DNA sequence: TTACAGTATTT
DNA sequence: AAATAC
DNA sequence: GTAA
């Protein structure tokens, strides 16, 4: 996977490197940093951590811990370390570099603008160039270098992964690649400095260095209020005393971070169980307490929370007390999943990526054969006992497992002793979607996948690459919150951010990822687990893991604190204003809508968009959509009773509110939209007279002039007549002849991702889908550029189109992707 | 490195 | 032809 | 952003 790494350009293709700052990509700088971080920091850091108390106690404990420090824990630690890289440690050369070209590109332009930074705002570029610039610039988006560096970035291909150092680490990927695999992560970043000495002290180390550290008085500075991560919590320890030295230490430390040490279990919010105890040992103590919200964790939990200065998720496997019954939703869901196997329970979807099958188009027949197989396979898959015993999984091939571990620790089955939910979760969809062509593949592959190892390469069938083949329902109202609710929430925030920023592709990528996450039955906790899901790649998987283990996402914090251009954000929401115009205005110094009204030259539509800015950016309640729709239908029926009007858009998908109201106008017997034009004109006139319509944004006019057809769509604004202060609403009419009704329905029902995936699928199958119909034998040239119109195969019947595409029928309400 | 849907309307 | 919208 |  080749990638591009941004470089700062000078004439000889070297970088401009301020001597005082280490620069990613600079071999010297990078290696220097790396060397400092290379040493496994565990001892040093742990000692730093305990230093204020008792060095020897710490050492003792460390020795003790060292024995049981298996690779798994090491991973976790590295993981967390990565998440908590102090951003301040990043090289800050940004302000130092002179910018020969100004103004610097707007942050948004860096991502999506069609105008490369150096070309200036008004230089139009071809779409290709724009795309080109965009994808490159997108890569360097958040880099300080890129931000201020308006020097034309020279993008040099490298063999490493392409972007990660920008976002995640100061160490260039290329440099990291040279490290032993097991160390790569740990080099990512130094630990947060917890010791009073601060970060300067915390770097290199050997156990010798550590033993030299001077003892410090415990009377260290108080932990600032903000760092009191345990504030409001009360810990009950088992055993609940501080006779043991290390436990005393831990208790004291927890107290320092705001925890209260309670002697009564009933008063506790957390139970911290000594690591030598299992649930059986403490059962008597705990079960006496009826407090169900009690959090039971092992002694590692508080330590690591402090370590990373945040509240980690207590329900992680590594904090679990051995033998503790799992009383979380995950198990409940899993159980429910394995029992509810209604063969057609709807949103069926596959979540496991599978090997691509080149052509599954006419695979419908293979269903029977596959289902036979499936029946023999599925039960095995679903039997919890089948895969629970982990020793078996590993014992068979322990050596290679271990070797692999050394080379690629990610492959270690982290959740090995986890409950079986992870294996069960795939089953329900398998049974639930017997008709899907891709089902066959799944049934076949799974056993193989399963028997080998958890770390399978991500695979997916041809069919399954298309969202239209998967489920997707509106966020089920009142539905028990998804196990991944928090993850989804955070990712949605990221998605919103990219929407604000007008980063089309990232926005849709996030939407897709969220959709697949939403379909998961179990909680996705590890990067590997996440990565196996469709539309979740390496970077999102990492983010997911970060969210799960730290309950937040640094990238989001960063995004939200970014001084994003408020003005641009505002302008982009004006009807008729896109990135191009908004950027231009901002660069001209306009900052508010008033500025625009007074100084900018606006098109008619833009003026409406500004004057009714708030109205048009307010969502329309479903109830009002109904009222508006009824009003139109009534008038239409008067004009021509044979006319049929249907409300499409998100309304048809069952949304509680919509951004606009979409009306599909048709009439039996019509074969072209032109036949409906006279009617619509009459209707519009009447609606204007009735004070229903208040503005026209796009009429059914010139379809690029000179052409024949009058056009088929009308955009405008309407209000609910009679009502005072009624908000202006966006309303669209689409004229559809009966012969194209099905295709139009698909088009106007959406959602957009569903439509696009449908169209993409069509095009891959040599067909073409648009609002008029499904065409076949479309010749396509370079890329997939259309050469031939193709022959219309179906337009009238929505379901037929699904069939012809080989897509299982979905009700409109299930078209949220 | 490229594609990521395909079209209608305005400017 | 580009920008914008759906 | 992901996937090919």
Automatic annotation (TrEMBL):
Annotated active site: 543
One GO BP annotation of this record: double-strand break repair via nonhomologous end joining
GO function term, MF aspect, one: DNA-directed DNA polymerase activity
PROSITE patterns named in the record: BRCT (PS50172), DNA_POLYMERASE_X (PS00522)
Biased composition (Pro residues): 97-107
Keyword DNA-binding appears in the UniProt entry: yes
Name of this chain's protein: DNA polymerase lambda
Needed co-factor(s): Mn(2+)
InterPro entries named among the record's database cross-references: BRCT_dom, BRCT_dom_sf, DNA-dir_DNA_pol_X, DNA_pol-X_BS, DNA_pol_B_palm_palm, DNA_pol_lambd_fingers_domain, DNA_pol_lamdba_lyase_dom_sf, DNA_Pol_thumb_sf
Chief localization: nucleus
Chain segments carrying region Disordered: 64-127, 158-222, 335-398, 413-457
Biased composition (Polar residues): 111-122, 384-393
PANTHER family assigned: DNA POLYMERASE LAMBDA, DNA POLYMERASE TYPE-X FAMILY MEMBER
Family to which the UniProt record says this protein belongs: Belongs to the DNA polymerase type-X family.
Domain called BRCT: residue spans: 225-319
Keyword DNA-binding set for record: yes
Signal sequence residues: none
GO-annotated cellular components: nucleus
Biased composition (Low complexity): 338-349
